Each structure stands twice: as C-alpha cells, then as structure tokens.
C-alpha cells in the first residue's frame, strides 16, 4: 500500500502514483497554457521579423539547425570554435572535457 505523508495539502502535487483529480488537472493545464503563451511571446519578441509565421513553430516539434535557420529561430549555424572566434572574438578556448582513460578502455 502506498502512502504519502506531507505537511501541506499540495506537497505531493506531482506524485506520479497519486490519482490526478479533475481540479488538479485543470490547475496544471492552466499553468502549462500560461507558460506556453509566455514562451511564444518571448520568442516572437526576441526574434521579431526573422521568425516565419508558421503555426508549427510553437507546436512542440524539434528542429535541427538547418530547419531552425529556415524558420527564423536562429541567426546562423556554427560550431563552438566558430562562434567563439566570430562572435565573442575568443580564440583561446580551454577544453575541460574529461579525457578518456586509455587503461580503462583496455580492461
């Protein structure tokens, strides 16, 4: 038997094992709708005329770089090095990625 002990009425609000009441579903749909509208407004505001008027832009689909460029979500394609060189004029990047241990690969 599953039990949740909380100190407030909504402390276990996102518990995936508790039933979703119609009131809570309505609440979360409102939060989601408002958040989505704010996102759309910010993107339109920041991209301006560069953004294509395509209803699919805000559908939740995923776009690759070329598609994002065509739609107007980005200004261009580039790599970490090209962006650092051309945008922030930094050519001395330090790579902090962990290096692979060759001994671990062999064992």
TrEMBL record:
Gene3D superfamilies the record matches: 6.20.330.10
Protein origin, superkingdom: Bacteria
Pfam family, one: Peptidase_S49
Molecular function terms, GO-annotated: peptidase activity
SUPFAM superfamilies: ClpP/crotonase (SSF52096)
Similarity comment: Belongs to the peptidase S49 family.
Protein name according to UniProt: S49 family peptidase
């Amino acid at each position: 038997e599953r039990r949740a002990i909380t100190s407030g009425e909504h402390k276990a609000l996102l518990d995936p094992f508790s039933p979703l009441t119609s009131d809570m579903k309505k609440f979360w749909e409102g939060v989601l709708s408002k958040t989505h509208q704010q996102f759309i407004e910010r993107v339109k505001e920041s991209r301006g005329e560069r953004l294509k008027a395509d209803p699919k832009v805000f559908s939740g689909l995923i776009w690759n770089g070329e598609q994002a460029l065509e739609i107007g979500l980005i200004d261009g394609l580039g790599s970490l090095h090209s962006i650092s060189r051309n945008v922030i004029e930094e050519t001395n990047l330090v790579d902090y990625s962990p290096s692979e241990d060759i001994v671990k690969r062999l064992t």
